[in-house]
Structure prediction request, 261 residues.
Amino acid sequence: MSSYIGRHAELYDIFYADKPYAEEAAFVHQCLQQYSVGTTHRLLELACGTGTHALALEKLGYEIVATDYSEDMLACARRKAAEGGSSVDFRWQDMRALDIADRPFDAAICLFDSIGYVETNEALRQVLQGVHRHLRPDGLFVFEFWHAVAMLRNHDPVRVRRWSMPKGELVRISETKLDYAKQLARVTYTIYELRHDGTYASLKETQTNRYFLVQEMAGWLSSCGFMPLKWFAGFAPDGSITEQTWHIVAVARKCGELSEA
Ligand SMILES: C[S@@+](CC[C@H](N)C(=O)[O-])C[C@H]1O[C@@H](n2cnc3c(N)ncnc32)[C@H](O)[C@@H]1O
Prediction:
C-alpha cells in the first residue's frame, strides 16, 4: 500500500494550491493553546505530505518532527524547507508503526483525512496506540477525518478538475467507489498533463481512505487511551456538524497509560 508516488507527489501542491494551509495551521495552533495542559511546543506530525502545515506551524513557534511514508512527498517537503530556511525535521515513518526515539511530544497532529488511509480496525488501533506512546502525559492529538455522513449522502462518483499551467493544462479525473461494509472510499485518479504542443503525459493512482462517524471515532479514542475533547466541523470554530460536513477536526487528550498487552 502506498500513495502519492513519483510525479503525483510533485503535482500535489498544484492540486491543493487553493487550500488555506496557513489558516488551518492557525486553527490548529488555537486548539493547541486552548486545550493543552501545560506548554505545548514540540509537535509530531503524521502523514505530513509535502509539509505545508508543518512549515506554517513552525512559523507559529513550534518545533516539529513531521513524518510520512511517501519518500516522494517527503522529498518535496524537504525541498520547500531548504528553500525557506526551515528547521522542520522531516522523517520517513509509517504511522501504523510509529517509532521515534526522541519522544515524547507535547502534541501530535494528522491532517487532511490522512488517518483514514490506514483502512482497517487493526491499523487504526496501531496508529492511535502509537500516537499515545509518543505523547507526554496530557498530550493532545489533533486530527482530521472524513465524515461518513457527508460521504454517504453527497459523494460524486466522478469529478473532473482542470488547472491552467505555463506549458498547457493539467486535468485530474477522480472516480470514487464506496465499499459500505468496510467504510472505504476507493478513489482512482487519472491525471493528464496536456501540453500546448499536442503531447501529453498521464498517470493513474488509486487511493483508499476510510470515513468515520463521530461517535465511532469517540469510541476508538476512548479505547486507545484518549479523552475526546472537541469535534469541529472542518476548521471552523463554531459551525455545527451537518450532513454537509465533509471533514471533522477532532481534539483529544491522552489520559492514562495503556497496558503493554
Ligand atoms: C491527503 S495527503 C495529506 C498530506 C498533508 N497532511 C496535507 O494536509 O497536505 C495524505 C498523506 O498521507 C500519507 N500516508 C498515507 N498512509 C500513510 C501511512 N500509513 N503512514 C504515513 N503516511 C501515510 C500519504 O503519503 C500522503 O502524504
About this structure: The longest strand covers residues 135-147. The radius of gyration is 18 Å. Residues 64 and 88 are 5 Å apart (CA to CA). The chain is about 30% helix and 35% strand.
